[in-house]
Amino acid sequence: MANARPGAGVAVVGGGIAGVAAAWSLHRSGYAVEIFERAPALGGNARTFRWSVDAGEAESPLLVIAWPQKYYHNYLRLLSELGLATTSLPIAYFVKHPHGVFCQDGRTELHRRRAADFRRWDRLIRVTGRINDFFLPKERHDSLYHFSYWNPLNLVPLYALTRCFGISARFWDEIFVPIHCASLITTSMKGMPAVVAPLLESVVALERPSRLQTWADSPRHVFERMTERFREGVHTSCEITAVRRKGPGFEIEDAAGRAFTADRIVFACQAPSILAALEQPSWLERTVLGRVRYVDDVDPTFARFVVHSDTSIFPEPDRERILSNYNTYTEVDEEGRLECTFVLSAQNPALKDLGRPMLVTFNSRKAIGKIEAQVELPNPTHTLSLGNLANMLLMRWLQGRGGIHYCGSFTTPEGGRDLSFLSGLVAARSIGAAYPFAMDASPAVADYHQMQRIMLGRVVPDAPRAV
């Protein structure tokens, strides 16, 4: 379908980073945009929470806490454009099992007990890295977007490969899952393709703490600054329940019965919500969108969480050092059930010295006092699986059909912040918006072009930038 004309009205359904990115990019290129978000505030999973502290109030993220700077080329361009600073954040993990603890200092009994597994894991990372390198261009930069259709590791589950390398099932259950569950928001990882192993290790190494980036302030400022020039077009607490064709455009209706019109639609929400809203989805829409799988479809561990300050959930001998030195505490019981706590106040310079523990606990099995909120996961992420990767590639056949475009986590390989942000820019480009940053030879532009290949099947020559 041809690009829409500047000035055309575009309705963006979903106010996470993908939807806001699409609206922001379209508005910069002269399009009239409106965002419809069912939650009371924009942000999706990058929610900002206000805590009461001695000095008054403090803000923190809840779910999206940090990111790897080396891979987030476009998101960092966005923060620079918005004038928002970042800060370094050490990330460390503490895991407690009935038969011991593991933390990334190399000195725990569980670490020594799994020493042979760690050596085999290192070998697996080296081998998979070489295989990935063979199938990728020789000249490339650090990127989340390098992808080869011909790499056989796309078809090999990582769990099966660990067993082929002689890595024990206990290593997977005691080390790999308790650490990576915090970033992947699931414990169901056995279907994860082996191709991602080197990337996971480069972001969160199993044996040593990582150093990531976070906002110097709170994620709220990102969304406020992106929408400040079209704030009248932002509708929160507005769940879209129907999308139907009306002449050359669309009529959309929210749960309160209010009607809006648009020339184009950008869906930046979950696939089931899209199918529920479309009045007459095509067989292709039903087939592709109906096959997207989310973590809560297969694993309820992270479906809800508690925001609190009750430090009694940590074991007494290690309580103080967990509160001071570790961002994530994961406890596994005798039946293998997992409880995970984000220690938000542990190492973030803006939060650490405020005198109040700031905790988010998933799948709590203990009595918790000092509860601030009980929350259901607002936007469960899609599973990192072969099925979803294949489905992601099929989405290009839906992009732009009948004036409907798509972005968000399920249109990307994994769903991280940079991926989702860039998916919004690609959806906006498919309508006619220009790339919002300098079109140069940088890694950011290379990632943008690669995301176009993933989502659209081609690189679309860029439009002139709006002034």
Task: Please describe what this structure looks like.
- This protein has 467 residues and is α/β, with parallel strands linked by helices.
- It has a domain at 9-59 and 218-294 and 382-456: FAD/NAD(P)-binding domain (3-Layer(bba) Sandwich), CATH 3.50.50.60.
- Helices cover 32% and strands 20% of the residues.
- It has 15 helices and 19 strands.
- The strands form five sheets. It has a seven-stranded mixed sheet with strand order 7-6-15-16-17-14-18. The protein has a five-stranded parallel sheet with strand order 9-2-1-13-19, with helices on one face.
- Helix 1 links the parallel strand 1 and strand 2 (32-36).
- It starts with 8 loop residues before the first strand and ends in an 11-residue tail after the last helix.
- The relative contact order is 0.20.
Task: Count every helix, treating DSSP H or I runs of 4 or more residues as helices.
Answer: 15
Structural class: alpha/beta
Approximate shape: globular
Distance between the termini: 26 Å
User: What is the tally of beta strands?
Assistant: 19
Task: Give me the CATH superfamily of one domain.
Answer: FAD/NAD(P)-binding domain
- Mean pLDDT across the residues is 89
Main CATH class of one domain = Alpha Beta
> Uncertain segments of ≥5 residues (pLDDT<50)?
none
Q: Report the β-strand fraction as a percent range.
A: 15-25%
Secondary structure: helix percent = 25-40%
Largest sheet: 7 strands, mixed
Widest sheet, order of strands: 7-6-15-16-17-14-18
Q: What's the architecture of one domain in CATH terms?
A: 3-Layer(bba) Sandwich
Evaluate the radius of gyration.
Answer: 22 Å
CATH topology heading of one domain:
FAD/NAD(P)-binding domain
